[in-house]
Amino acid sequence: MMEYKGYFGKVEFDDEANIFHGEVMNLRDVVTFQGETVKDLRKAFRESVDDYLEFCAARGEEPEKPYSGKFVVRVDPELHKIISVQAKKDGKSLNAWVYETLSKIVKETTQQSN
C-alpha cells in the first residue's frame, strides 16, 4: 500500500504486461497509475494524486477526502442491543463507546504486529 497527501494507493502486478498498476482507494472518482519499476510506480502515484487535486481546484470543487471520520456499520439487532446496553452501563454514547473500543483493539493489534 502506498500513501501520499492522505490518499492511499492499492497496487497489483500484471505478469502478462510486466507492469505495476494501481488505483487510489476510497474515492468515487477513478484515479489510476502505473509503472514498470517501483520508482516509476511511486512517481506515477504522486503525480496522479497531484493531478486529481489540480483537476478539482480547476473546477472549483473540494477534493474528496478518502476518510471523513464517519462510516456505517450494520450489525444484527441482538448485537446492537448488547453494545448499546454496554455503552449505557459505561456512561457513554454508543459512538463514544464504539470509538474507544475500536481504538483499544487497533492499539493492541498494532503492538502485537511490531
Automatic annotation (TrEMBL):
GO terms for biological process: regulation of DNA-templated transcription. InterPro entries: Arc_rbn_hlx_hlx (IPR013321), Ribbon_hlx_hlx (IPR010985), TTHA1013/TTHA0281-like (IPR035069), Uncharacterised_HicB (IPR008651). It comes from the Bacteria. It holds the Pfam family HicB. This is Toxin-antitoxin system, antitoxin component, ribbon-helix-helix domain protein.
